[in-house]
Amino acid sequence: MTGVHALLEIVVQFIFIWLAFTAIQGFHLERFFHRPPRTLPLAIVLLSTAIGYLCASFFLGILTEIGNLTYLVR
């Protein structure tokens, strides 16, 4: 069961990172600069990784806590 849980966490984290990446790209941040810095794509990747990780951790935490609610009833 531990392997399935680890695989689920990895997949969920990649999904949330991808969602954050596509959402950040939708803002077209290069419009806010006269000359966009060369490191802007790297900053977008790092920002989307941070936001995606935080959202995935929140989502997985909620799922864990919902699973633990069964112990309240038992």
Explained architecture:
With 74 residues, the chain is mostly helical. 77% of the residues lie in helices and 0% in strands. The longest helix is centred in the C-terminal third of the chain and has 29 residues, at 40-68. The protein is elongated and about 60 Å long. The two termini are 22 Å apart. This is DUF1146 family protein.
Summary tags:
single chain, 74 residues, mainly alpha
The portion of residues forming beta strands comes to under 5%
Unreliable parts: none
DSSP strand tally: 0
Task: Give, in order, the helices and strands.
Answer: HHH
What is the SS-derived class? Answer: mainly alpha
The radius of gyration over CA amounts to 17 Å
User: How would you sum up the global shape?
Assistant: elongated
- Total helical elements: 3
Integer average pLDDT = 95
Tell me roughly what share of residues is in helical segments.
over 70%
**Major beta sheet, specifics?**
none
**Distance between the ends:** 22 Å
How do the strands and helices of this protein lay out in sequence?
Blueprint: H1 2-25, H2 40-68, H3 70-73
In a nutshell, what does this entry contain?
By secondary structure, this protein is mainly alpha-helical. Helix content is 77%, strand content 0%.
